Automatic annotation (TrEMBL):
The protein's Enzyme Commission number: 7.5.2.13
Chief location bin: membrane
Annotated source species: Halobacterium bonnevillei
Free-text function comment from the UniProt entry: Part of the ABC transporter complex XacGHIJK involved in the uptake of xylose and arabinose. Responsible for energy coupling to the transport system.
Family: Belongs to the ABC transporter superfamily. Carbohydrate uptake transporter-1 (CUT1) (TC 3.A.1.1) family.
Protein name, entry field: ABC-type D-xylose/L-arabinose transporter
A GO CC annotation given for this chain: ATP-binding cassette (ABC) transporter complex, substrate-binding subunit-containing
Catalytic activity, as annotated: L-arabinose(out) + ATP + H2O = L-arabinose(in) + ADP + phosphate + H(+); D-xylose(out) + ATP + H2O = D-xylose(in) + ADP + phosphate + H(+)
Location of this chain's protein in the cell: Cell membrane
Subunit structure, interactors included: The complex is composed of two ATP-binding proteins (XacJ and XacK), two transmembrane proteins (XacH and XacI) and a solute-binding protein (XacG).
Annotated ranges, domain ABC transporter: 4-239
Length: 367
């Protein structure tokens, strides 16, 4: 069993006397064989978290356990993890075979034949068996990335640690490699932590995703949990494309009031909101009903500003029709065959079962 536990880990750097808290009291339990994606904007502490697990950075506080053993103070080579970098980090003067086998003799008790077998097996798994005698300079970027992944597989580690491994590939190859990587990870059943800043990659690859902002863990959950039940405004804005529409609002009895619209609250909404007065109202673009034919306390007249065709769907940017000085704009997603054009007047509905409400002060989700 190789479950991986980050137990209140903190990592600070000293930047010429200033303390930078790169990882701030982060705790995550990653199950044996799980594929966990660490995601967040640039500088949020993803790479530092991964590097502390690999032993490339020491932690300032907390405990890291792999398969039940505390590994905080172990040297990187003694941790039984294998890291894959965005830059591939291959030795240019060595063949693919040499790169994949490098260090195995010292770190394991394997004979040359056994190492050779492992390298061949991993190379076959990665589809690079016919490239074993080439040097990295004679390979495409995609092939080099396969070598880097193959090198990690050969080590037969308890955990794969991957830092944006597909970031240097073009979009098509990246999509292909995502699927392949998931298949291999599932076949091998090795606990994996995968760092990316790309929320689409996180949503499609992770069994669960852990969302970081400014060194702090915002939410850990399945992609669907984080999408449907974002813990706070940050997660709501970060997960989902286009982002959730949000409006500052006031609660006035059974009505939620923004600068542009009033929204009838149900008893369920009111129970969740409690005594709060200042909230943020949220609705995902795909939850906006465009062309609603029943008028109720959830429908509004709007004007279409721009239609962005995206193939099988359109992003429709709209503005409320009201006499407010700067009416709010928002985005709806509708199927590609539905036709609305810039300048059209339409009625939209924000269905009561789909709305989100956040505390205006803390940003925490209340609904
Ligand atoms: P990116 O996606 O841009 O790689 P990240 O989420 O991986 O970002 P980190 O590289 O972990 O973020 O950096 C987190 C914070 O720690 C940043 O503010 C960064 O400037 C700082 N940091 C990282 N390494 C060091 C270091 N060696 N010395 C000082 N500060 C550092």
């Amino acid at each position: 069993m190789a479950e991986l536990t980050l137990d209140h880990i903190t990592k600070t750097f000293d930047d010429g006397g200033d303390e930078i808290v790169a990882v701030d009291d982060v705790s995550i339990d990653i199950a044996d064989g799980e594929f966990l994606v660490l995601v967040g904007p640039s500088g949020c502490g993803k790479s530092t978290t991964l590097r502390t697990i690999a032993g490339l950075e020491s932690i300032t506080d907390g405990e890291i356990r792999l398969g039940g053993d505390v590994i905080n103070d172990k040297r990187p080579q003694d941790r039984n993890t294998a890291m894959v970098f965005q830059s591939y980090a291959l030795y240019p003067h060595m063949t693919v075979r040499g790169n994949m086998a490098f260090g195995l003799e010292e770190s394991t008790q394997l004979s040359d034949d056994e190492i050779d077998d492992r390298v061949t097996e991993a190379a076959e798994m990665m589809g690079i068996a016919d490239l074993l005698d080439r040097k990295p300079g004679e390979l495409s970027g995609g092939q080099q990335q396969r070598v880097a992944l193959g090198r990690a597989i050969v080590r037969n580690p308890e955990a794969f640690l991957m830092d944006e491994p597909l970031a240097n590939l073009d979009a098509k190859l990246r999509a292909q490699m995502r699927t392949e990587l998931q298949r291999i990870q599932e076949d091998l059943g090795v606990t994996t932590i995968y760092v990316t800043h790309d929320q689409t990659e996180a949503m499609t690859m992770g069994d669960r995703i852990a969302i970081l902002d400014d060194g702090e863990l915002q939410q850990v959950g399945t992609p669907l949990e984080c999408y449907h039940e974002p813990a706070n405004l940050f997660v709501a804005g970060f997960i989902g494309e286009p982002s959730m529409n949000t409006f500052e609002a006031r609660v006035d009895g059974a009505t939620l009031v923004t600068d542009d619209f009033e929204y009838d609250l149900s008893q369920r909404h009111r129970d969740a909101i409690g005594a709060r007065e200042d909230v943020v109202f949220g609705i995902r673009p795909e939850d906006v009903e465009v062309g609603a034919d029943t008028a109720d306390g959830h429908t509004y007249a709007v004007t279409v500003d721009v239609v962005e065709p995206k193939g099988d769907e359109n992003y429709v940017h709209m503005t409320f029709d009201d006499d407010h000085e700067t009416p709010d704009t928002f985005t709806a997603t509708i199927g590609g065959l539905r036709q609305v054009d810039a300048g059209d007047s339409v009625v939209v509905r924000f269905p009561p079962e789909a709305i989100h409400v956040f505390d205006a002060g803390s940003g925490e989700a209340v609904l």
